[in-house]
């Protein structure tokens, strides 16, 4: 009887262990991106649907969804590890895959037309993958800052600002280093790699405000009017995890989810007040967000005070 019970216990423990092992092998953590810095027209085709909808107040994008920007539309996708993708106008980008499985990260995107600017902050391991697919090329990185542009004929241009990108096309593979660009035009005799032009370098400098750490002020809103307190204003927002953050030169610590709240002193009766938040990542790249506030001052607080009877000023 004891031997039978012992055998049952051993069999049960084996089944539990096998179930845990199988569960661990199939669990996949899907990663989502928060959309920020939206301007103009931005549309999204949700996962499992065929029709596009205005992005509107929707601020999370997951694998299987496609974003498109209008003639003046722009937006930035932000992931928790510091990865950022900035979409220019008239671009179509699909998030094909963005997941963590058994400790390895795998991200894949497809750019059908337009231009995107990419910042991969962390250095990926050999098991990790980060790919940008286009009609004529695939770009793979370990950790870098680069841009991908696709023309109407499907030709691809990849420019690298920092790090190195491996570019593969129908005619072979090439490594593109910092301050270089690669041109791929279908089945031509291989990618053409050249130094960045002066115009491309200037374009990179113009994009640096979007390729620093993720930072946004959620309250007060831009060009906001705030009620007079005579003492303080509350500033709330989100910041990339691991970035050093200051608000009006005051160090601020984010919560684990990146949110922060800080109370700033306001000069009494000040009509205008500026909030300046600055985030700096481990590579020294910075992002600055400002709010220029107009204060609603109560008239009675500004009125001269009359002396009491029997007193002199």
CATH class of the largest domain: Mainly Beta
Architecture of the largest domain, according to CATH?
Answer: Sandwich
Helix fraction by DSSP (H/I, runs of at least 4): 10-25%
User: Which regions are unreliable across 5 or more consecutive residues at pLDDT < 50?
Assistant: 18-26, 299-303
Provide mean pLDDT, rounded.
Answer: 83
How many β strands by DSSP?
A: 26
The coarse silhouette is: globular
Main beta-sheet strand count, sense and barrel state? 18 strands, mixed
Strand content: over 45%
Supply the number of structural domains: 2
Number of separate helices: 3
Structural class comes to mainly beta
CATH topology of the largest domain: Jelly Rolls
String of helices and strands: HEEEEEEEEEEEEEEEEEEHEEEEEEEEH
Cα gyration radius (Å): 26 Å
Distance between the termini: 104 Å
Could you explain how this protein is built, in words?
The protein is mostly beta strands and 313 residues long. It folds into two domains: 28-211, Sandwich (Jelly Rolls); 215-301, Immunoglobulins (Immunoglobulin-like, Sandwich), CATH 2.60.40. It is 14% helix and 48% strand. The protein is built from three helices and 26 strands. The chain has an 18-stranded mixed β-sheet that branches. Strands 20-26-25-22-23 form a five-stranded mixed β-sheet, with helices on one face. Strands 19-21-24 form a three-stranded antiparallel β-sheet, with no helix packed on it. The longest helix is centred in the N-terminal third of the chain and has 25 residues, at 2-26. Residues 18-26 and 299-303 have low confidence and may be disordered.
